[in-house]
Amino acid sequence: MIFPLEELVKFKGSIYEITAAASRRAFQLAKIKDPILEEHDGKDVSVAAMQLFKGDVKYRIEQ
User: Fold this and answer.
1) In the chain, how long is the greatest CA-to-CA distance?
2) How far apart are CA 62 and CA 9, in angstroms?
3) How far is 21 from 43, CA to CA, in rounded Å?
4) Minimal CB count within 10 Å: which of 8, 11, 32, 62?
5) DSSP single-letter state for residue 1
6) Alpha-carbon Rg for the chain in angstroms
7) Which tops the pLDDT comparison, 6 or 51?
C-alpha cells in the first residue's frame, strides 16, 4: 500500500489535524503489532492514513 496522496489532495479538513491523527494512529498500530501491517508490508503510516480517510477510524482534537 502506498500513501494515499489522492485522498490527501481531496481532503477538505485541516491538513495539520489529519497528519497528527495519522501519526498517532500509526504509532498505535505499530505498538500493538496489528496484523494488518503484515498485509501491507509494515507501512504503518499509509495504513493509518487510509483508515482515517475511509472513516474506519475516527479522530478528534482535544482542546
Assistant:
1) 35
2) 25
3) 16
4) 62
5) -
6) 11
7) 51
Q: Please tell me the distance from the alpha carbon of residue 11 to that of residue 24, in angstroms, as a whole number.
A: 18
Residue type, 18: I
Q: Cβ neighbours of residue 19 under 8 Å, at least 6 residues apart?
A: none
Residues sharing a CB contact under 8 Å with residue 27, sequence separation 6 or more, in sequence order: 44
pTM (2 d.p.): 0.81
Q: Which residue has the cell 497528519?
A: 19
* Inter-residue long-range contacts of 23-28, CB under 8 Å, 24+ positions, other chains counted: 23/48, 24/59, 25/51, 25/52, 25/57, 25/59
Using a pLDDT cut of 90, give the percent of the chain over it: 35
